[in-house]
């Protein structure tokens, strides 16, 4: 499978994939879509990651709580930087 054979489909800020013939392979209802090294397709929706075959059949669905952890960690860092800047501005 080659990524060049597929095109991104966008519908209401959700992503999917279509093939060169215009057939929907992955419905545009995911936050992210992409390709894995093993030739399979992945999609992410919320905290779940889906693995698809090249026909669009879901092979696996996995809960990914580390997505929350990464977002939360980024938010904490941003708040800390904001507080540091605020402290230096008030001095």
How many helices does DSSP assign?
A: 1
Percent of residues in helical segments? 25-40%
Enumerate the strands of the largest sheet in spatial order, edge to edge or round the barrel.
Answer: 4-5-6-7
Order of helices and strands: EEEEEEEH
Q: Report low-confidence residues grouped into runs of 5 or more.
A: none
Helix-and-strand structural type: alpha+beta
Distance between the termini: 59 Å
**The biggest beta sheet, please?**
4 strands, antiparallel
Oligomeric state as shown: single chain
Strand content bin: 35-45%
Number of strands: 7
The whole-number mean of residue pLDDT values reads 80
Shape: elongated
Task: Using the CA coordinates, give the radius of gyration.
Answer: 19 Å
Features:
3-stranded antiparallel β-sheet; 4-stranded antiparallel β-sheet; 91 residues
Report on the structure:
- The protein is 27% helix and 43% strand.
- It is α+β, with helices and mostly antiparallel strands.
- The chain has a domain at 3-64.
- The strands form two sheets. It has a four-stranded antiparallel β-sheet with strand order 4-5-6-7, with no helix packed on it. The chain has a three-stranded antiparallel β-sheet with strand order 1-2-3, with no helix packed on it.
